[in-house]
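Entry type: protein chain
Record version: 2
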Amino acid sequence: MTREDAYYERILLLCGFREQYDRWLDFYLETEEPLSDIVLELLDCRGDMKEIEYRLNLYCLEKPFDEESVYTRLREYLWENYSKNVFTKDDVMVALFRFSRNIPCCLFSNQCLTLSDYYLLVEEGIVDAERFDRVLIRYLRSGEDFDTAEFWNAGF
C-alpha cells in the first residue's frame, strides 16, 4: 500500500465516506503478497474507525509522499460520483467543506473552502447559480483553478 493510497482513504474516512473502506482494505488483502505491516495493522482494528484513522495517520507521517496526487484523486472522486448522479450538488458541496476542514492548509483545501462558501452565496441568491455551476463543473472535471471574480463578472 502506498502512502498516497493510505492518505486518500484516511481523508475519505475523516469526511464521512466509510462505505468503501471494507472494499478498499479487501483489495489489499487479496493483492498484497506478503501483506504489508500497515495492512496487518488495519486488519487488527477492523471496525474501530478511530483506530483505523489513527494508524493511517501514523503511516502517512512516516515518510513524505505526493499529497497533490491525492488531492487530484479526491477531486476526481467527487466528479465521478457527481457526473453519474450518485452525488447531488449538495453532497459535493458538503464533501468540499469537509475536505477543507480535514486537509492541512494548501491550494486544494482553500479551493474547497472557497467553493463551499460561494455555494452559500448561491443559496442566498447573491451569486448567480449558472455562473457558479460552470465554475464548479470545470473545477471538478479538470481541476482548473478559478478566480473568485468569475462568480461576479458577467463576461467570463
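Comment: The helical segments are 3-14, 21-31, 37-44, 49-62, 67-83, 89-102, 107-123, 129-142.
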